[in-house]
Design the sequence.
């Protein structure tokens, strides 16, 4: 059996192990917290961070002569600022230790980069949905700009735009089908913890991407580490080369379901 183009052998046979938990969430089905330790993934993440930094790009499967400038690290030091990356160690169907890797959201407006796990959603479905709806929302915004704030129509138009935006976000959330390790799958709104709002970007972070890919490809996760590359974010809460747990704002809503059965 050959390696998948998205799974890679560990960089060394003897790596340090950490039992620190940086990925967890409450599972309503089990009424308890599920978690995944770092395991050997911290050492793998340091290896990947060093490789990305030394090569100055994230398309690590390409030779220098064929490197795509869109995947240069320059993007992460521009106004776009930095981005989160993640590494997950897994055991494949043959019992071999491997790792997979992901970045949060899109990289320079690109969903898929060779060697990195794909997004949970189908990008074409996303574009088909948002193209038409965003045109309508932008057109309404122009109408609002032409309307006097004292006009009785002003509030009505603003409320209409807000409702359209909320509806679009709900439709985007339903593009995400999340899988867990009990063989279950749910749309994001059904997988998320009940009674809580779902923020924009939920399902696009590294941990959900990695867990979903593992669950769909018969890979058993053994560890996960997430780290930040690039210019610090505006709040200063993310710094280059630092490691962070899965976010509580978005990921904690769905990780309990996604980790279930592991």
Sequence:
């Amino acid at each position: 059996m050959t390696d998948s183009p998205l799974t890679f052998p560990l960089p060394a046979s003897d790596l340090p192990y950490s039992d620190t938990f940086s990925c967890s969430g409450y599972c309503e089905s089990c009424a308890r917290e599920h978690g995944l330790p770092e395991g050997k993934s911290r050492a793998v993440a340091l290896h990947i961070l060093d490789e990305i930094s030394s090569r100055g790009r994230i398309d690590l499967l390409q030779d220098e002569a064929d490197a795509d400038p869109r995947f240069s690290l320059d993007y992460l030091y521009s106004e776009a600022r930095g981005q989160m990356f993640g590494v997950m160690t897994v055991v494949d169907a043959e019992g071999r230790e491997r790792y997979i890797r992901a970045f949060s959201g899109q990289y320079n407006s690109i969903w898929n980069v060779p060697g990195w796990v794909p997004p949970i959603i189908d990008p074409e479905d996303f574009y088909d949905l948002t193209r038409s709806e965003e045109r309508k929302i932008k057109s309404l915004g122009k109408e609002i700009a032409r309307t006097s704030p004292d006009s009785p129509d002003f509030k009505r138009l603003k409320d209409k735009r807000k409702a359209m935006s909320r509806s679009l976000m709900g439709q985007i959330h339903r593009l995400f089908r999340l899988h867990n390790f009990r063989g279950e799958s749910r749309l994001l709104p059904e997988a998320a913890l009940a009674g809580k709002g779902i923020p924009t970007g939920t399902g696009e972070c590294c941990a959900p991407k990695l867990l979903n890919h593992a669950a769909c490809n018969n890979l058993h996760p053994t560890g996960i580490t997430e780290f930040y590359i690039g210019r610090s974010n505006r709040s200063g809460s993310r710094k280059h080369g630092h490691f962070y747990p899965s976010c509580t704002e978005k990921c904690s809503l769905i990780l309990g379901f996604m980790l279930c059965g592991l």
